[in-house]
Amino acid sequence: MKKATTNTTTKSLHPRNKHNDRYDFNQLITVYPELKAFVALNKFGSVSIDFANPEAVKALNVALLKQFYGIDYWDIPKTNLCPPIPGRADYIHYIADVLTESNHHKIPTGKNVRVLDIGVGANCIYPIIGHQEYGWTFVGTELDKPAKATAEKIISNNPDLQDTVSIRLQENKRNIFKNIIQPGETFDITICNPPFHTSREAATQGSQRKLKNLGKAAEGKPVLNFSGQNNELWCEGGELAFITNMIYESVHFKSQCLWFSTLVSKNDHLKNFYTILKKVKAVQVKTVTMEQGNKVSRILLWTFLEERQQESWSAKR
After folding, report:
1. pLDDT grade, residue 198 (50/70/90)?
2. What does the DSSP assignment read for 145-159?
3. Alpha-carbon span 14 to 88, nearest angstrom
4. Is 303 among the domain residues?
5. Residue 155 and residue 162: Cα distance in Å, rounded?
6. Measured between alpha carbons, how far is residue 130 from residues 137, 189, 264 in Å?
7. pLDDT tens-digit profile of 15-68?
């Protein structure tokens, strides 16, 4: 098993990420005037929003999606995760780099590049960014029927997404790829932002800590970007169990996916995952470390295909 680790050299976003510069709130307000109500000087004297205010975070996301990705409609319920768009974009750009390596060092673009998003969520954020940036086709999976309906409403209200993004219901919460990947179907890469916590209580405590870091008294105040449905935030065994299951299940689809990938929140879990990947005879394993300010996250990627098979795959794309 070949193992490689890639670290970003600075605490900044990917070079192709459109959000490397500070938010230009004047431009954002121009494309989405409703944002103006939430913009003010913060305690550092900078123009910003209150990131602990759920309505403000949602308004910022709507403006960012309009300005940078041409998304005219984006709306999610208060109970669902409101994702930080710059960080989500980083995942997409880094997997593009990995796909580039077996594509004659050219970024693969267009609808023939197929991505499977495990747990797409109501926000549908990865398909939005991935398609608008690279023209890729996405299939998202979702356990929650209301979240699936919300994502499909976003798709149906944005013409660019209608023919290139679809959502499939995963009816068995114990399955990840099973009942989703069909016989003869192939994907260039699978992506996932897995539930991190082991219980509802742990998820709640995590949200409280994030609020305190923002200098807010958290009690009783729902915060959109730190909220989320149960399946978005926690599962039995947490991240460790979820990704372990994903690795074992990926073996059954090893010839149907060029790369498998997932975000990993806890660095200590990587050693366990490497052991399992060696056990299931993954041919190549990569770890990409992303640093965004004080936040550190990792992308774990693995493939069961030899380099020659990877090149052949890309040639058929």
Report:
1. low
2. HHHHHHHHHHHHT-H
3. 11
4. yes
5. 6
6. 8, 12, 20
7. 999 999 999 999 999 999 999 999 999 988 899 999 989 899 999 999 999 999
Domain count, the chain: 1
Quick one: average pLDDT of 87-101?
97
Rounded distance between C-alpha atoms, residue 75 and residue 151, angstroms: 9
78: in domain: no
Residue 229 has pLDDT above 60, yes or no: no
* 35 contacts 62 by C-beta, under 8 angstroms: yes
- Considering the domain boundaries, does residue 133 fall inside one? yes
Residues written for the chain? 317
CA–CA gap between residue 103 and residue 107 (Å, rounded): 7
Phi-psi region of 230 (alpha: psi -120 to 50; beta: other; left: phi over 0): alpha
231 is written with which tokens?
Answer: 């399946």
**CATH code, domain carrying 162:** 3.40.50.150
> pLDDT per residue over 257-305, tens digit each?
999 999 999 999 999 999 999 999 999 999 999 988 778 899 999 999 9
Which amino acid is located at 127 in the chain?
P
Whether residue 37 lies inside any domain: the answer is no
- What are the structure tokens assigned to 208, written together? 């409280």
Could you tell me the pLDDT band of residue 220, with boundaries at 50, 70 and 90? very low
Please write the tens of the pLDDT for every residue from 115-134: 999 999 999 999 999 999 99
- Which residues constitute the domain of residue 221? 2-18+83-316
Helix axes 125-134, 85-101, angle to 10 degrees: 50
Give the 3-state secondary structure of residue 223: coil
Q: Measured between alpha carbons, how far is 99 from 189 in angstroms, rounded to an integer?
A: 8
Contacts 24+ apart (CB under 8 A), 98-103: 98/189, 98/259, 98/261, 98/286, 98/288, 98/301, 99/188, 99/189, 99/258, 99/259, 102/258, 102/307, 102/310, 102/311, 102/313, 102/314, 103/314, 103/317
What separation in angstroms does the CA of 69 have from each of 19, 106, 224, 285?
12, 22, 22, 31
